[in-house]
Amino acid sequence: MDNSVYGSTLQPFAGITTFMRQPATRELKDVDVAILGIPFDSATSYRSGTRFGPRKIRELSAMLWGSNQVLRVAPLDHLRVIDYGDVDVVPVDIHETFARTTATVKTILDAGATVISLGGDHSLALPLLRAHHAKFGKLAVVHFDSHGDMWDYDFVGYKYSHGTPFRRAVEEDLIDTDAYLQIGIRGSTSALDDYEMATNLGARIMTIRDAMAQGTEKIVETIRQTVGTRPIYISFDIDAVDPAYAPGTGTPEVGGFTSFQALEMVRGLAGLNSVGFDLVEVDPSFDHGDITSLLAANLVFEFLSLAALKKRAAQ
Prior knowledge:
Elements: E1 33-38, H1 53-60, H2 75-78, E2 81-86, H3 94-110, E3 114-119, H4 125-136, E4 139-144, H5 165-171, E5 175-185, H6 194-200, E6 204-207, H7 208-214, H8 216-227, E7 232-237, H9 259-267, E8 274-280, H10 291-314
Parallel strand pairs: 1-2, 1-3, 3-8, 4-5, 4-7, 5-6, 7-8
Helix pairs in contact: 1-10, 3-4, 4-5, 8-9, 9-10
């Protein structure tokens, strides 16, 4: 396929803004990685607008030149990457949106491609984990976030929201709780026992206070020792990053990671058995100068770099 029509050889201000100006197609033959947008934000509890995240992240991905100097890999030299477009979400029906998301991701995984999902709110982690569990079995999960998302109910009587996906995933036995890490957790909570509740369900919590005391190298060492060779799903809520660096999100929490720390932690996962990724909770309507979306696009580039290193090592 001729990629030049999308502008892959042009300057960042030109071309069609698929992710990194890669082909927009649903043809999965010989595809290594599919970028999938899920523009759904009806499960948010504060500020909505993340339905516009996938489109804006794609736009800012035009700033990615293609070579990762830190990890010493040019992902597109090793991977056939496509932009699969978006799930046909139903804003008024979370259950139908979940069903469509799981079905779409299963189709891609069954074709042998890796999925990198762009959200959308964090409720989408549940249907994504369902699809990956069907392919890979119980998953180690590395979950970067300011919130644990393990409440039983975000709204009384409603079990599905962006505050509940990982509790539901544990209940559905999708996650290997011997290898489930939440990194960057912080902020005020509704109850003093919120962290205890999450750890009782099997999460290993590294609060932002713990993380800052240890530094990124120690965080990465802890992740690597915990997950080992298990299949790993990486879920990155952009609000893990301090709102000084990522203001464009629905539920910001002060005192988070810097952009550099976020990039370094993801880079530190090189060589692990990563099988799926999501980047969620980017809300362009609250962004300043597109800095949140630019960071998100760069984190996805790091995901692509991890996938490229994995493929290169297997050859």
